[in-house]
Specification:
- The complex is a heterodimer of chains A (about 700) and B (about 100).
- Chain A has about 700 residues and is mainly alpha-helical.
- Chain A is about 70% helix and about 5% strand.
- Chain A has a two-stranded antiparallel sheet.
- In chain A, strand 1 and strand 2 form a beta hairpin.
- In chain A, helix 12 runs parallel beside helix 18.
- By secondary structure, chain B is mainly alpha-helical.
- Chain B has one domain: Helix Hairpins.
- Chain B is elongated, with a radius of gyration of 17 Å.
- Classes of the chains: A mainly alpha (about 700), B mainly alpha (about 100).
- At the A-B interface, helix 27 of A face helix 1 of B.
């Protein structure tokens, strides 16, 4: 298949969901059956994606770019020649991401057919899924920052629509607003970052910008600005991928329908931030990467501690998502590029499975989300249980699962990073989070599926979900097994996924602002100019990662096992009473249960500040602006009163006077007009007499 | 012996004319108004004849007087017919009450 065909199919894949959205949103009311059309369309998109992926991955080295001039502003003063290009770029991570997006999107479509049944805006829901898929594919396919930004916002919009899908509930409407506003904070940073790059390079295209940086052309001739641009664009990822301190919207977003949480808030949209970080990886300086690593590590730690104590099944999963996203971001920051993307893919599958599993549980428990009312569901819902368990094993990093491979890789990367740069805090946080993840995920499984039912009534009514809902679970849990990514169940590095498909791109930033381990070897310096020839990581990093592999594996296994053991001790065998433990660690427990008081902090600072500021503005508006307006009104009224007086007495006076005169004359003359012929004759006679007397003819 | 001259005729005719006008102006009865008109016409006749007699005009005055008498007869015939019809229509012949044409 030629490149042109591949580009064409990719564009079809991109625009079919938009067509689906347009048709279903307009005709959905008339033809409620159109949701089937949307599901079928998504299946077609998925099949096309698989075709594209197979063709593209057969030639892993090739990169297909197709672009056109969108518009040209000519020679703009102070800026220079401005041409804006749009285009798509198809490389390995593009097609892999497309598979992730479209596969999960299709499975979620399928799952929703049953889950959303009976909803009064059923077809509209599917239309929204369509526009979401379109926007997400736009992010994945774009080859420039402008389109990235446009689709970034479109994704934000569709996320807003879907979170607030049940907008009759105030909490859902608020959650949608919150997600939109919090994301906006990050997007401002991203926008500024894009503008810094555009000011310097007059283009939005990734590859052109990287080529310019590699040629030594820096924004404002300073590496500090390059670092700033990297960090600012990363701010967009902080918002969208729910990194601390902008993570607050994601747990609230669980107000949306559960399949939406699986698609958007676990697998795809929140991964867009990581995808963006991966795309800009080449232009990140050492400082920017360190900032990113610290953000990611801290986020994963904060979210993991919160997830320990939550009681809402979806909230636990939401915080675990935040925590895993922190992992990925950290992984980008420490230079483990391939593992960041690998973890993105594996996480997308098992987390979507976990969310759909929770959706299955919630559906069969009649919209009960509190795990304290569940328990013992293992017997009632065997398929859901099994799928949930496999995904839990994957997220906990147990061997034979995909999660083990990716997590192990990025933890090894963090050890290598620690040993090479001395930032040991990052691996320490990484391993702590691994232990906590295993603990809270097994806590969730045990409380939900094991033990005795806590709410007998709801338990009696629980039932396994229909096949439309279990099929996606089965497929997704199957994708959580190692075999899809590598033939070797304990190391991914030599599997096809990392060996052939995902390669760390060459860093383009100047040598002096790279980490030591990322500097280009002197031996390769000579042919570094040729693309593809540059050695990305020096032997140092590869070697350090190789050394770290087994320690990391054993350490993470030991810690994960410890976490699981602890969870079983607390909740399965009841050797330790969790309530007593909570009582003993009360301050910590409270701190975690209340989510580190971040929301409260925002209420006290940002929201209270905004309210105070708007109060001030309102006062200004009420007193100063209104005062001016009212003053103007008073002056106007005064003048109009004068004008009114003039009008009444002078103008009207003249008019009335002339009327009066006419009336008086009329009244007087009316007397003569009697209508009696005889009196007229009298007048005639007297007139003749008078005329005769005057003219005296004799 | 008083010599009868032109002035006497003119005085008689102006008395007749004034009486005619007086009749027209003061009477409400249509027939009395007509009679007033007759008086005025006749005063004019007297003038015609008197001027013809004392002036050097030939018989022009007398002939005009004859025309006026004929005209007065025709006028009286038509006017009396109108008055009759008025009476038929309104049952009254007072000129100031018969004013329906005004509306």
């Amino acid at each position: 298949m030629s490149d042109a065909t591949l580009v064409f199919i990719s564009l079809v894949i991109l625009f079919l969901p938009l067509a689906g959205f347009t048709i279903v949103i307009h005709l959905g009311k008339k033809f409620p059956k159109l949701y089937l059309f949307e599901v079928g369309l998504q299946l077609v998109v998925l099949l096309l994606t698989i075709v594209v992926a197979v063709v593209k991955l057969a030639t892993p080295e090739s990169v297909i770019i197709s672009e056109f001039h969108w518009f040209s502003l000519g020679d703009v003063p102070l800026v220079g020649n401005m041409v804006v290009d749009l285009g798509i770029k198809i490389d390995n991570i593009t097609v892999l991401m497309m598979i992730v997006v479209n596969l999960i999107s299709f499975l979620v479509h399928l799952f929703s057919v049953e889950y959303m049944k009976g909803d009064k805006r059923y077809t509209r829901y599917f239309a929204y899924l369509g526009i979401f898929t379109f926007s997400m594919l736009g992010i994945v396919l774009t080859h420039n920052l402008l389109m990235m930004y446009i689709f970034w916002e479109l994704v934000g919009l569709s996320s807003y629509l879907l979170i607030g899908f049940w907008f009759e509930k105030d909490s859902a409407a608020d959650a949608g607003k919150k997600a939109f506003l919090v994301n906006r904070v990050g997007d401002i940073g991203m926008f500024l970052g894009i503008l810094i790059l555009f000011t310097q390079y007059h283009t939005f295209t990734f590859d052109t910008i990287y080529a310019q940086i590699a040629a030594g052309n820096l924004p404002f001739e300073s590496t500090a600005w390059l670092t700033a641009a990297g960090i600012l664009i990363f701010m967009g990822a902080v918002g969208k991928s729910a990194q601390f301190p902008l993570h607050v919207w994601l747990p609230d977003a669980m107000e949306g329908p559960t399949p939406v949480s699986a698609l958007i808030h676990a697998a795809t949209m929140v991964a867009a931030g990581v995808y963006l970080s991966v795309r800009i990886f080449a232009m990140l300086t050492a400082d920017a990467m360190l900032v990113i690593a610290i953000f990611g590590a801290f986020t994963s730690f904060v979210a993991a501690t919160i997830a320990l104590t939550q009681n809402d099944i979806k909230k636990v999963l939401a915080y675990s998502t935040v925590s895993q996203l922190g992992y990925m971001v950290m992984s980008v920051g420490i230079g483990a590029y391939a593992f960041a993307f690998f973890h993105l893919v594996t996480h997308a599958f098992f987390k979507a499975c976990l969310f759909l599993g929770s959706g299955s549980v919630i559906n069969s428990m009649h919209h009960e989300q509190d795990i304290r009312n569940m328990g013992g569901l293992r017997k009632k819902m065997p398929i859901t249980y099994l799928a949930f368990l496999i995904s839990t094993l994957a997220i906990s990093g147990i061997p034979l699962t995909s999660g083990f491979l990716s997590k192990d890789g990025l933890l090894a990367g963090s050890i290598a990073f620690g040993s090479l740069t001395g930032h040991w805090l990052i691996p320490i946080i990484g391993f702590t989070v691994a232990a906590m993840t295993a603990f809270y995920m097994f806590r969730l499984v045990i409380i939900t599926f094991h033990g005795k039912p806590r709410n007998q009534d709801k338990y009696d009514h629980a039932h396994e979900s229909p096949r439309v809902m279990t099929l996606p679970l089965i497929i997704l849990s199957a994708l959580s097994i190692f075999i899809w990514y590598t033939p070797n169940p304990i190391a991914a590095a030599d599997g096809w996924f990392l060996q052939d498909w995902v390669k760390t791109p060459a860093s383009v930033v100047p040598q002096e602002v790279r980490f030591d381990f990322m500097k280009t070897d002197a031996a390769h310096e000579t042919n570094a100019e040729e693309p593809g020839n540059e050695i990305v990581h020096s032997e140092m990093y590869t070697e350090a990662m190789h050394h770290a592999h087994y320690p990391a594996m054993f350490l993470s296994l030991a810690l994960g096992g410890l976490g699981i053991l602890f969870a079983f001790m607390l909740y399965q065998w009841k050797k330790i009473d969790p309530d007593k433990l909570a009582e003993k660690l009360k301050p910590l427990y409270k701190f975690s249960l209340n989510k580190w008081y971040v929301d409260e902090l925002y209420h006290a600072t940002v929201i209270a500040g905004t309210l105070a500021w708007s109060g001030l503005l309102s006062w200004f508006d009420g007193n100063v602006i209104d005062g001016i307006v009212n003053g103007t009104a008073t002056v106007t009224r005064f003048f109009s009163r004068i004008s009114n007086w003039f009008d009444t007495f002078v103008v009207d006076g003249i008019v009335n006077l002339s009327a009066l005169i006419s009336g008086f004359v009329g009244l007087t003359l009316r007397r003569l007009q009697t209508g009696k012929v005889q009196s007229y004759i009298l007048f005639v006679v007297f007139s003749v007499l008078i005329i005769v007397l005057i003219f005296q003819p004799f | 012996m008083l010599q009868v001259g032109l002035q006497h005729f003119l005085i008689v005719s102006s008395i007749l004319f004034a009486l005619g006008i007086y009749g027209i102006v003061t009477r409400k009865n249509a027939i009395m108004v007509l009679m007033g008109i007759e008086l005025m016409l006749n005063s004019a006749n007297i003038n015609f004849v008197a001027f013809a007699r004392y002036g050097n005009f030939g018989l022009h005055g007398q002939i005009y007087a004859l025309f006026v008498i004929i005209l007065a007869a025709a006028e009286a015939a038509i006017a009396l017919a109108i008055v009759l019809n008025l009476y038929k229509t309104f049952a009254k012949i007072n000129v100031d009450e018969v004013n329906n044409l005004k509306e």
